Amino acid sequence: MPRILKINLLLILLILSISTGLAASPENLSVSVEKITSISQIVKPYFDNLVVSSGTNLKERPVIGGSWSPDGSRLEVGESINRQRGVTLHATYILNADGSGIRELASTPNNTNEGSLTLGMTSWSPDGNRIVIFSNIFNVRDFYIFADPDKTLIKTAGKCNYTTVDEIRKNILDIEWQNNLMWNPEGTKALALMDQDTIPLNYQLYLLDSNGLILQQLTDVSNNVGFALWSYDGKKIAYSATGQPENENGLWTVNENGTVRKRLNDNGILVAWSPDDSRIFYFDENSSLYSIKVDGTDRVQLSKEFSPSEDVFEFSQDGKKLIFSAINSDKVTIYIAESTGKNVKALQEFPGYIIFKPSWSPKGDKIAFTQDDDLYTINPDGSEKSLIASAITDYEWHPSGEFISFVSSGSVFAASPDGSTKIKLAEDGRFLEGWSPDGSRLLVSQYGFTGLFIIKLEGYEDPLSIDFLTPVEENCQLRIRCMSEPIADALLTLNGKEIGLTNSSGFLNYSCPDEGRYVINASKTGHRSASKVLVVQENSSASPVKSAVPEPSSDSGNKNLTRSETQIPGFRGITTFLILAFFVIRRSSL
After folding, report:
1. CB of 370 closer than 8 Å to CB of 394
2. Which helix (H) or strand (E) segment is 580 a member of?
3. Which of 107, 141, 282, 571 has its CA 20 to 30 A from that of 421?
4. Angstrom distance (rounded) from CA 8 to CA 312
5. Sheet containing 236-242: which strands, arranged edge to edge?
6. pLDDT: which is higher, 150 or 590
C-alpha cells in the first residue's frame, strides 16, 4: 500500500458560536439522520451551463469539494475539470448550509490552452467575511484572490487591483508570486510570502489587510522566507529563513508592526506556536523536532525523526498536551508530551509506515488514530485501546466529542468513542470533508471526488449569522440572517446588555460604542444563537473580529483552542493533497 502524504491547508478557522450538542454518551449513543442533500446535484446544472458557455467542449467528469464557513451557516463549493494538458475549467459557488441559495462567486469560462487559470484551494477568514482562493497559471504565477462571499467582488492579493478573472489572466505577469497566506486570529489581517520575478524566487513576508492590500513589508533580506505563523494572540509572527547570508538564516520572531526582530536560532523550520505563545516548535536540517522559548532559551528536543510531509502535530483542546508522530521505513510511533514539549512518552508503536492523522477528541479524553486501515481510540495515558472499525478511508471527531464519524467500505458511520455502539448514517461515501462547526451537518465526498453530499442530523436548530455592516458616522448596523433569509425580532445584546430587536428586514441600527472590544450576541427562539466580537477602532469605525477565546460548550467545561492545531500536514487534507498532486504532475509535464 503506498505511503499516504498528508497535506493540510493552513487555514485558520476561529469560531465563536453557541451550539446545541447531542445528548449522547458512549453507553447510549443516539444519532439520527434528518436529511441527506446532494450538493453535487444542486451544483451540476450551473456547472453544465458553464461548460456549454465556455465553448471548451470538455467531456471529463468534474471533481467537487467544499468547506464550511466559520459560523456554519454557509458552504463554499469548488468544481473543476482538470487536465494535465490543455484547457481546464473551474468555478467557485456559495450555498447556504441546507443547500439553498446557490450563487457563483467566480469561474473561468474563457480559459485557453495558453492561459488556463485555476481556481484551487480556498480558505475562509476567521470572521467569515472573506474567502481566499489559491489560483495559478502553471509555470507562470501562483497567487491568491480575495472574494466577498456576500457579493461577486474578487481582487488579487498584493499590489495589483484586478477584479475580474479575465483581467487577472490578461495581466498575470504584473502579479507577484505568492504563497503561505495565513489569517490572523481575528480575520482582520493576513500574512503572505511574495516575490516578483527574481530567479530563483526569493520570497519575503508581507502584511495584508482583509481585502488583500499590502499594509507593510515585514522582511527585506537576501534570504528566502519559507514559512510564517501568527501567534495565538495575533501580536507576533514567527518565520523561517534560508539562504545567504548565514546571519539571516534560521528561526525568527517579529512584532505584527514589523518591529523588534529576534533570531531564536540559526537553523530551524517553523512548525507551531505553543497555545500560550511562550514557545515555538521547529525542526532542524537533521529532522530533529524541538521547542524553544520565545526569548531563545530552554531548547527541548522532542524527536530525532520528524518529517513535515508525513508526521503530524496537534495540541489537545485545553492546550495542556500535544501529540506528534515519527514515521520511518520500519515503524510508526505516536508520542504524547506536555505543551512545552517536555516529558515525551511513546503512546503507540507499530510496524509499517502508513498512518492516518492521530487526532484529539474535542473533549480531550480520547485520541483516535489508524493503523493501516483500522481505526482505534485510546486514552491519553495509553489505556483502553479500542478498535472502532476496519477498512476505513477517513474519520473525523464530531465537534461535541461525543462520537466519532468514519467511512468504512463505502458507508458513513457514527460510533461511540469506545466503539461499543455504531450507527450507519449514509451510503456511497469516500472521504469526510468536515463537520459544520455546530455539529449539525457532515460534508461527505464520494469516490473520485465526483460527488458531494450533506448529512443533516436531527435535533439541531439552524444557525443565525451576524453581519457587521459599514458604519455611517456614529451609527453601526447589524444584520441577522439564517440561510440568507433576514430574521426579524432577533434579540441582540452588547456585552450582555440588550441593544434592541431586528426589524422586518433583519437590520438593527445603534450608536457605535466607544473604542474597545465587545461581544455581540444574537438569539431567537427556534434558531441556534450566534456571537461575534466587535472591535471599535480609534476612528470610530467598527470591524468584526472573532474572539480569541471561544466559549466552551456547556457540557465540557474546557477552554478550547481557537484555531486548527494541525500546523503541519495532516490527514484532513486529502482533497488538498489530490489538488496539489495534480498541480505538481501537470507542472512537471509541461
Report:
1. no
2. helix 574-589
3. 571
4. 10
5. 224-230, 236-242, 250-255, 262-265
6. 150
The grid cell for 371 is 493503523
Q: Categorise residue 173: left if φ over 0, alpha if ψ from -120 to 50, beta otherwise.
A: alpha
Amino acid at 457: L
CA angle, residues 52, 54, 57, in degrees to nearest 5: 60
Q: Show Cβ contacts of residue 417 under 8 Å, excluding neighbours closer than 6 positions.
A: 26, 361, 365, 366, 377, 386, 401, 402, 403, 404
* CA geometry: angle 352, 357, 362, nearest 5 deg: 145
| Per-residue cell: 280 | 515555538
* CB atoms inside a 10 Å sphere around CB 400: 21
C-alpha cell at position 549: 477565546
Q: Report the Cα 277 to chain-centroid distance in Å.
A: 20
pLDDT band at 539 (very low <50, low <70, confident <90, very high): low
DSSP type of residue 184: -
The DSSP output letter for 448 is G
Q: 485: closest CA among 534, 443, 524, 435? A: 524
Of 81-95, 215-229, 268-282, the least confident: 81-95
Q: What is the dihedral of CA 292, 221, 584, 4, to 10 degrees?
A: 0
Q: Is 99 left (phi over 0), alpha (psi -120 to 50) or beta?
A: left
Residue listed under C-alpha cell 484551487 = 120
Cα gap 491→523, rounded to integer Å:
5
Contacts of 299 (CB under 8 A, 6+ apart): 265, 290, 291, 292
Q: Which of 113, 105, 64 is nearest to 88 (CA)?
A: 113
CA geometry: angle 135, 150, 78, nearest 5 deg = 35
Length of the chain: 590
| Phi then psi dihedrals of residue 307, to 5 deg | -120, 120
Instruction: Report residue 165: phi and psi, to 5°.
Output: -60, -40
What whole-number percentage of the chain has pLDDT above 70? 84
* pTM, to two decimals: 0.85
Spatial contact of 330 and 351, defined as CB atoms under 8 Å apart: yes
Helix H or strand E encompassing 45: helix 39-54
Nearest one of 360, 362, 433, 315 to 21, comparing CA atoms: 362
Q: Which residue has the cell 480558505?
A: 123
Total H helices, total E strands in the chain: 3, 45
Distance CA 368, CA 379 (A): 9
What are the C-alpha distances in Å from 296 to residues 261, 265, 582?
12, 7, 40
Task: Check if the beta carbon of residue 578 is closer than 8 Å to that of residue 220.
Answer: no
- Coil vs helix vs strand at 123: strand
Q: What is the pLDDT of residues 454-490, one digit of tens each?
A: 999 999 999 999 988 766 567 788 999 999 899 999 9
Tell me which H or E stretch contains 182. strand 177-183
Select from 78, 172, 180, 63 the least CA-distant residue to 121. Answer: 78
DSSP per-residue letters across 202-228: --EEEEEETTS-EEEE----SSEEEEE
CA-to-CA distance for 14 and 184, rounded, in angstroms? 10
Instruction: Supply 377's cell numbers.
Output: 481510540
Please answer whether residues 229 and 237 qualify as being in contact, where contact means their C-beta atoms are separated by less than 8 angstroms: yes
User: Is 477 within 8 Å of 508 (Cβ atoms)?
Assistant: yes
